[in-house]
Amino acid sequence: MTDKVKIIECPRDAMQGIKTLIPTAEKVKYLQALLNCGFHTLDFGSFVSPKAIPQMADTAQVLEGLDLSSTQTRLLAIVANVRGAEDACKFNEIHYLGYPFSISENFQMRNTHKTIAQSVDILKAILELGGRTNKEVVTYISMGFGNPYGDPWSGEIVGEWTEKLAGMGVKILSLSDTIGTSKPEVIGTLFRELIPLYPHIEFGAHLHTTPATWHEKIEAAYTGGCRRFDGAIQGFGGCPMAKDELTGNMPTEKMLSYFTSKRVESGVNWMAFEAAYNKAKDLFEQYY
């Protein structure tokens, strides 16, 4: 087990639910600050229908405005179908394609208007496309820690889907707590059980949380063996369908303080992060 973690900062997740359109230049300025911090990956935008997510309609323009010459941070773009993946693959600057795959039929329909069976076919096509264009694919298991929509859920079901996805060639799998309902014991158990079974898969945690539960969730994932963590500064964003208005993304500053206290290396420069944190506060307080 390594004492290093990968931090994936997710401004896309923080911004996508904001109804007021943030000017492209403002996005570029904020993302540029994040690129200075030393994050492993920046989930910076998405190639999805502008009707579905208007805020992300300018992702290509944002990308063109970024200066990537002095950063080691890799870029990730979310895609919901093959067409979006094809659009993302036109850009050499993008390293990762992120695909949300839900093991909840109800949520898959809500999120991408596809059945699980259709989503499997889409993921297969995206994996093939990624292989041809030298892009890595990050597959997110939405509803990875529970299901509030009445669909069957259990650790065994998560395990069965992990086996199927591994068989399809998935190499990065992020378990997602889409609406913040996960429990520490479930988080820890899933990572402890799955990670040893699939040593060729990099497991990640995309956790949503309330202000009172962030620590127990991070600790459960970390002690369970997870070393890849998604977050967003100040916890902005999160699932727009979450019932609790306090539920948001995992606050990056909280994660960093936790890993610092454990003497775990994250690669993040605190001074640069403080500057980006201040920019985030100014930006989101203006448009939220």
> Helical percent range?
40-55%
Rg result: 17 Å
In spatial order, strands of the major sheet run 8-1-2-3-4-5-6-7-9
- The CATH homologous superfamily is termed Aldolase class I
Structurally, how many domains make up the residues? 1
CATH architecture descriptor text:
Alpha-Beta Barrel
Give the averaged pLDDT, no decimals: 92
The proportion of residues in beta strands is 15-25%
Query: At the first level of CATH, what is the class?
Result: Alpha Beta
Give the beta-strand count: 9
State the end-to-end distance.
40 Å
Separate helix tally: 11
Structural class: alpha/beta
Question: Topology of this structure?
Answer:
Elements (H helix, E strand, L loop, with lengths): L5 E4 L1 H5 L8 H12 L5 E7 L11 H7 L8 E6 L2 H7 L5 E9 L2 H8 L3 H18 L2 E7 L12 H14 L3 E6 L6 H14 L4 E8 L4 H10 L4 E4 L16 E2 L2 H10 L8 H18 L1
Parallel strand pairs: 1-2, 1-8, 2-3, 3-4, 4-5, 5-6, 6-7
Antiparallel strand pairs: 7-9
Question: Would you give an account of this structure?
Answer:
The structure is a single chain. This protein is of the alpha/beta class. The chain contains eleven helices and nine strands. The longest helix has 18 residues, at 116-133. It is globular.
Q: What brief labels describe this structure?
A:
single chain, 18% strand, TIM Barrel, 288 residues, 11 helices, nine-stranded mixed β-sheet, alpha/beta
